[in-house]
Amino acid sequence: MAKRDPYEVLGVARNASPEEIKSAYRRMARKHHPDVNPDDPAAEERFKEVAEANSILSDPQRRARFDQYGTADEIPQEQYGANIGDLFDMFFGGAGQSQGRPRRGRDGEDVRADLEITLGEVLTGVQTDVQVRRMAECDSCHGSGVEGGGQPDTCPTCKGQGMVSQVRNTFGIQMRTSAPCPTCHGSGVQIKNPCHKCRGQMVVPETATITVNVPPGVETGARMQIPGQGSDGVGEGRQGDLYVFLSVKDDGRFERHGQTLVTNLDVSFAQAALGDQIQIEGVDETVGITIGAGTQPGTHVTVKGMGLPALHGSRRGDMVVRIQVRVPTKLSEAQVKLIKELAEVSGDGIPKGEDHKGLLGGLFGKKK
Q: In this structure, are 62 and 118 located in the same domain?
């Protein structure tokens, strides 16, 4: 598929200023971000297209090449030079910056949001909104920092480069290194008439609502990274990311052990002795289980496939039902008589309880 005109992708004129291009990119990136359009399979491709258009138009050299030749692709010599520059950056801390102009500006900060979900939402996944406080491009000066949206002045220290070079002697070899300009802090500009709203900072605080798609199977402590949804950068700085920290709300019905859910079930002595068919509540539906005759207290009954899924997986774990036999605290005379008869028939003998305030209310007295 042929690449679209980057000006058309961002919806800007061919003489658009860097500030207009930056503002259009942020608007289009947020509009087409896959997390904002979870039901649109084409959103990711549009998002990549917007990012590619911005990478062309925000780079003066690539933009000029596109304006002149209709393509921003570099010729092999340029690619080779860029790779050499990368090697210098790796080993000499920026000595290879002369191979290409560094980005001028400051990257936006990452922001954090905390989100609590239910056990049912762990089972199915959930799409929900979170509110975050972040720094956004000032709409009064369009991110220039200058009152009325004018152009800032070039920094006299770095001549607009945002970086200053320094020559050091290391083992008798002169090495040139680069660092952010101490005057403009890497922005390459000075603001003499600051915007009244952002006071020349180019960004202002905002509260934003972000749609988050939480996948099934997450656990407390999981962290989701949403690129580009943090604070806006300054100048040519990149947007920060949003990090969503997840916690799962306690559910009194279950204990969670990874994909396995454990629940308690109280049954009567008769049910445990004779067996029964019982309906119990699962996370998402009612489940029937069989209590076998002669079931002992503490017996575990496993229900396959009624637990939780693995992260991004489809197969569910199991639900374990822990059987507990209820012992009555109060008995009628008829019940006492039957229990005595049962004890006698079973050969267990009649209990000689002498505490009349005990569990059976002193119903097991001495035999007459």
A: no
